[in-house]
Amino acid sequence: MNIGNESVVTQRKIRVLVAENSTAEAGGALREAYREAEGQLEITDVGSMATLLPTISIVSPDLVLLDLALAGPDPVDAVRRVHRSAPKVPLIVLAEEKSEAARCLEVGATDYLLKGLVDTRTIELAVRTALERNTLDGLTDLMRDPLTHLYTRDGLMTLGSRAMETARRSGGTLVLLCALLENLAILRNKLGVRTAEQMLQDLAALLCGSFRRTDVVARLGEAQFAALAVDAAEPSAPVLCQRVQRRIGTFNQLRDPAEGIPVRLAVGFWSAQELHTFPGLLDRVEAELRSSEVVPKKETEQPASVTGC
């Protein structure tokens, strides 16, 4: 298989560290997939967790592939330790069950392959996606909002489109929540610029605290935010929305009523069976957010409410 010039895998030799049991299912498929590009791929094999961790610092891999059969009784903790030892290195896990793999995604794994379903096509796609993701992560780090340090709209579009491609391939799901800090101009005039900025930062922190580390939270505009949850089941869409409502409601109860955060929410669900693109999903949820718009509150009214969903 040729590795094209436009691919992330270029003329530089790519170092892959494979930790797998004696079946060598993934390692064998990897070698076969890149047989024609042997000079551009350097594979290091290890057979235990005890060997894997020190080998990471020696080899400095571009990608790690971990068979959870080596991880002992607590594979999630093993994935967490590998991720902590090399947080910038993509980690693909080889799992027996999707539920087990999904838990690993929450603690640092970037993708997974299911045992018995690994072939040259699936592993080539997983490797290519992981390496492209690592490159995109560097690019999207430049797409940060200076006030909240969240991703910008461009960052969300980039990461969201990539997440949808991965979910479509794996049969996964996405939940997208949009949030609007209402009456920002009125609040800014009434309370001052600094207080309004603090409200935006507080809302950003509340959203980040409501989602997993592997999810994507972004500031889309002056007063609008979004959060993308990957591999969230359809019933979790209203659950996520209610979680955010509760967090903001509790936060507002502890504040001066005049400085509470008035927020409007909308949420959408996407599955791999749908034909929508990520921009289409975002348009749909933003349209719902706009359709629930209410008349701006007068200054004499207390603004600390959470609506939507």
Give the key terms.
single chain; 309 residues; alpha/beta; Rossmann fold; Alpha-Beta Plaits; five-stranded parallel β-sheet; five-stranded mixed β-sheet; 10 helices; 44% helix; elongated
Description:
The chain is α/β, with parallel strands linked by helices and 309 residues long. The protein folds into two domains: 14-140, 3-Layer(aba) Sandwich (Rossmann fold); 153-308, Alpha-Beta Plaits. 44% of the residues lie in helices and 19% in strands. It has ten helices and ten strands. The protein has helices at residues 25-33, 49-59, 75-85, 98-105, 120-140, 153-170, 184-191, 193-210, 236-253, 278-291; strands at residues 14-19, 41-46, 63-67, 91-95, 111-114, 173-181, 216-219, 224-230, 263-271, 306-308. α10 links the parallel β9 (263-271) and β10 (306-308). It starts with 13 loop residues before the first strand and ends with a strand.
The CATH fourth-level homologous superfamily of the largest domain: Reverse transcriptase/Diguanylate cyclase domain
Helix residue percentage:
40-55%
On the 0-100 scale, what is the average pLDDT? 84
Strand order of the largest sheet: 2-1-3-4-5
Reported by name, the CATH topology of the largest domain is Alpha-Beta Plaits
Tally of DSSP β-strands:
10
Structural class: alpha/beta
Unreliable sequence segments: 1-11, 295-303
* CATH architecture classification of the largest domain: 2-Layer Sandwich
Number of helices: 10
Radius of gyration: 22 Å
Largest sheet: 5 strands, parallel
- First-last Cα distance: 48 Å
So what's the oligomer here? single chain
The general outline is elongated
At the first level of CATH, what is the class of the largest domain?
Answer: Alpha Beta
